[in-house]
Amino acid sequence: MAGTLGTTFTTAEALSSGMHRRELYGLRDDGALIELSRGVFRWADAPAPTFPDLLAVSRRVPIAVVCCVSAAAVYDLTDEIPVAVQLAVPRRQRSPRIDYPPTEVFRFTAEKFELGLSSVEAAPGEMVRVYNRERTVADLMRLRNRLGEPLALSALRRYLRSRDARPRDLLVVARELNILGPVRTAMDAVTAE
Questions:
Q1: Which residues contact 68 (CB under 8 A, 6 or more apart)?
Q2: Do residues 70 and 102 both lie within one domain?
Q3: Out of the domains of life, which is the source (predicted)?
Q4: Residue 88 is assigned to a structural domain of this protein
Q5: Residue 2 domain-assigned?
Q6: DSSP alpha helix (H) spans, the chain
Q7: Residue ranges in the chain modelled with pLDDT below 50
């Protein structure tokens, strides 16, 4: 049965593979499984995940995309440690209720939801949906009144100073998100420093 389940799996996947609830929770209680979040399990002998909270949330809400400060932390665009996993869902999607790990949900329009979609390896061989660096910086600028302007400017500064910065791509994303003016102004100020 363990062979039919992946390294990280949900209760529903375990049950559909033929595992009984008693067996599942027995494995958890014996220490063979680690419960990352309610209904999300990982084999205890599996390699440690790089981003366990992101992995847990992505298994609970597969449509969600890691965004804002959580995405900035993935790309090393901030030193801030997010107190909650920030994730985006389409505006008409029902907000997920996740007690652990703590989450903060952002609702983005369906038309722009997939803009800048990328992925990151949260554990060996296990990918999590995350916005790319350009979309992350643009979102932080777009939400700077809610998340803090110093955070947004710091992420922009780090982005522009990185080797793989693509300022033109950042401006394209900013235009798509209707934030081109503030991003361009901030880029001018940061590059003039």
A1: 86, 88, 106, 136, 139, 140, 143, 147
A2: yes
A3: Bacteria
A4: yes
A5: no
A6: 11-16, 21-29, 52-60, 68-74, 133-142, 144-147, 149-161, 167-176, 180-191
A7: 1
